[in-house]
Amino acid sequence: MPAQLPPEAPALVLVTSGEPADVATELATVIRTDNPQIEVRLIGLKGDPGNLSAELESLAEVRPEEMMAAVVVTVSTGPDPELDRLVAEAVEGCTATAVVAEPLGPHPLLAEALHLRLADAGLARADRVRLLSVSSPVDAVIVVSTGGAEAMAAVETTAVLLASRLTLPVMAACLDGQPSVAQAAERLRGIGAERIALAPCVIGNEADELIAAAAESIGAGRAEPIGAHTLLAELAARAYGSILATA
């Protein structure tokens, strides 16, 4: 990411499916703090692509006509069919030039953020650089998310990346579909895992009740959601930078 950008450089527009929650606002703040050269906007679609279209039009008004007005980054850990559809409609439905970045995950930095959230909860060794605990407090981890079968491919890739960091068995499970947390726990216990932890591959707190219920149902510990982690902010900034580099 360049240390400086021209005033007419495109804005980074973070998009959430609903009203921007505190975690999305905090994420935008982290990105601004770490990358003061980037103009960061935050938009909640609330089911209406027109909200994003209007924001893109306003950004285009203060930039040269031939310039890209914005790079759109969805605040999600992987493909989200409904959110992605609304974003595509918004971009196609306005005259502004905008590019939609690839989803933030799966990505090794996302797996690292999950690892650190587990470590924060005392459910995993910290990374080797931090040189903290030595023994693992759990035998296996289940990476959980929402979105049904369509979201599971990305979650499964994230689970593989996390397994390589933890050197433990890691499986993916869906909080609102298949494969379920109970099914994943049964498979892990079938290979000898007794102490299991849940790693929520979600950003906000919208799935807290589902996560708590799933953890209780299998007697597992659980980490906090990713939240406005600095690594997530870095992913968003990288997504922005990669679009600029290829524009």
Automatic annotation (TrEMBL):
It comes from the Bacteria. This is Cobalamin biosynthesis protein CbiX. It comes from Sinosporangium siamense.
